[in-house]
Design a protein that fits this description.
By secondary structure, the protein is an alpha/beta fold. It has one domain: FAD/NAD(P)-binding domain, CATH 3.50.50. Helix content is 26%, strand content 35%. Strands 5-7-6-14-15-16-13-17 form an eight-stranded mixed β-sheet. Helix 1 packs parallel to helix 9.
């Protein structure tokens, strides 16, 4: 049995923990809860999936389907979906959502695998001792004697933390991300919008989704809007109130909304989704140190979806098992 540290409790980190349960696993995350960008946000009586929105029913990662079924984590719903709202292209679409918001999927996986965890612990330093074991440091604590350290956080955060332990000069081309501003808004009265989700609502809004189809307890008509990556890049540090008013005006004009807004808030995701994957550049499924003790993985390896993130962890876990024999 090896002592393995996993940095990042998103879907890739949870996939690794799930597949390496025969070892002594400790998961670290700077957040208070697992899930990463699979985030469900609560404000008083308002609920929003403001990170990942849903899981496709036709993804090809069999193990993720097995885990969702085993723990009863998701439900399939069918909705009216705009494949391109600006071009009036619409369809009926089946999607998988969490039983209680999308974050309930990683949270339930985390609860069921029962590994050691250190949430609210941002790792700021890593070092190797004379016994070839690793120590991790947060601002307040040291965590000792790990055989393997697996980083499942955004690539550039890992790179900064590991620049003295991995030769990144050998990586000719790097993966890249799109940032996204997300806007959450609610109305006291139902706006009777038939399309429940879709793409290209506006040149500056790439995605929109109703939240009442996910949360039965919501009384207000609630929506999440993703600003386009181009708009976000061009307005990366925009004042939140300006952003929110702009998004609200587009949404209300598009659907001819006259009802009064009851809630609005925004969030910026700097590493919202993978734009260029590491696998597409290198044909590799992870980055590793020369001694095969430190590994980097994440959704940036294979793609931007939840299933890609899980698949990246599953692939790396197979290699860790070989090294651990």
């Amino acid at each position: 049995m090896k002592n393995i540290a996993i940095i990042g409790a998103g879907m890739t980190g949870l996939s690794l923990a799930y597949n390496l349960q025969e070892h002594n696993i400790t998961i670290f995350d700077k957040s208070w809860r697992p899930g990463g960008r699979v985030s469900t946000r609560k404000h008083d009586n308002y609920l929003f999936d403001h990170g990942a929105h849903y899981l496709s029913t036709n993804h090809s990662v069999n193990q993720l389907n097995e885990v969702i079924s085993r723990y009863n984590l998701g439900q399939v719903i069918e909705i009216d979906f705009a494949t391109d709202y600006l071009k009036n292209k619409k369809t009926r679409k089946k999607i998988i959502i969490g039983q209680n918001g999308m974050n309930s999927i990683p949270k339930s996986i985390f609860d069921n695998i029962k590994v050691n965890s250190c949430l609210n612990s941002k790792i700021i330093k890593i070092s190797k001792n004379s016994n070839d074991l690793f120590s991790l440091f947060s601002e307040k604590e040291e965590f000792k004697d790990f055989d393997f350290v697996l980083f499942c956080i955004p690539y550039f955060q890992s790179k900064e933390l590991l620049k003295d332990l991995i030769d990144f000069t050998q990586i000719v081309s790097e993966p890249s991300y799109d940032p996204i501003h997300t806007v959450m808004l609610s109305y006291k009265e139902n706006n009777n919008i038939n399309i429940k989700a879709g793409l290209n609502l506006h040149k500056d809004i790439s995605f929109f989704m109703n939240q009442n189809i996910k949360f039965n307890e919501l009384s207000d008509d609630s929506w999440v809007l993703n600003m386009s990556s181009e708009y976000t890049n061009n307005n990366i540090n925009i004042d939140k109130s300006v952003l929110e008013k702009y998004a609200q005006s587009i949404f209300e004009k598009t659907f001819e909304i006259k009802n009064e807004i009851s809630f609005i808030k925004s969030h910026r995701w700097l590493y919202a989704q993978t734009k260029v994957t590491y696998n597409s550049i290198s044909k590799k499924n992870w980055i590793n140190s020369k001694d095969n003790k430190i590994f980097l993985s994440g959704d940036w390896v294979l793609g931007k979806s939840l299933s890609d993130a899980w698949d990246a962890g599953e692939k790396l876990s197979h290699y860790i098992k070989i090294l651990s024999v």
